[in-house]
Fold each of these.
Amino acid sequence: MENNDILIRLRYALDIKNKDMVEIFKLGGVEVTKEEVLKILTKSKDEYDDEVDVEEDENRIKCNNKMFESFLNGLITYKRGKQDPKPGQSENPEPSEQHKDHVNNMLLKKLKVALQLTTEDMLDILDEGGIAVSKGELGAILRKAGHRNYKECGDNFARKFLKGLAVKHRE
């Protein structure tokens, strides 16, 4: 799943307005305009299409992992408020390189923090999304990469979580 697709689903699930998206990106350290946000939230053309329109590419901005992590950091600040940095900690957290291939794990961890979700809340959301998971499985996904019990979060799992989140927040 592409970062742009995740942002589209997350925006829908949490009912975030365009001006709020600009603010969240700004809180994460990325300056974007409302027009750029609309280009980021444009759905991509099917990968299976042989004919690729050049105009289609000009109307879309691809969200890279660094930009996506900055958005999630901004979402945490937006939802929970600005936190005073601890001694030796930078003002704005720099996006880490460790999340290069584990975007879905990062998504779940940061959403858990931003929305102040407990493990039980996350299990309920996953249940709403149509997937039954044990506490142990969820714990493995939320672990730090490199831990012996770490499990990579697949696209289907992240998709079901976002679907469940939409059901929970849009009731």
Note: Residues 47-56 have pLDDT under 50 and may be disordered.
Amino acid sequence: MTLLIWTVLGYLLGSVPFGIVITRAMGLGDLRQIGSGNIGATNVLRTGSKPAALATLILDSGKGAIAVLLARWLSGDDSAAQLAGLAAMLGHCFPVWLGFRGGKGMATFLGTMLALAWPVGLLCCATWAAAFAISRISSIGALASVASVAPWTLVMGRTDLTITSLILTFVVLYRHKDNITRLRAGTEPKVGKKS
């Protein structure tokens, strides 16, 4: 029952669409009608507002981190923390309030991993940064980062997180299926260009 409660709370926390809330509050329009229509920070950046994109990035990351930290603190159970983080990811990617059409989960993924095991999370952030710096394509950074998380859990001796990390990877890969198609076609836009 406790695990179920933390799963539900994690999902509800993750399903808050901060990108939409922030862009509406700042008078930037309906985010779902801009750029790719995605509710994450990369698409918020396409509104031309870097502060809005940064706020979205921080809050979307925070959803995963807060879900994990609260569950760990109040339950004292790492299984509850992992479930809460997974649920927050699912809430962000498939929010009930938006007809289960949410974001792609990268910021929430990184926040979740930083809270579950900060060394692994930092390595995932570094992998994202390196891939993005080379390509200037956000989705390449995301795909490289999630592909690296399971190996990083093994390298850092956190095998207890390997299954969770693989599930998170699958969710992010699924949400990036259109990006993968565009990458294969050579039509995926670089950051700074309108899609």
Note: The two ends are 45 Å apart (CA to CA).
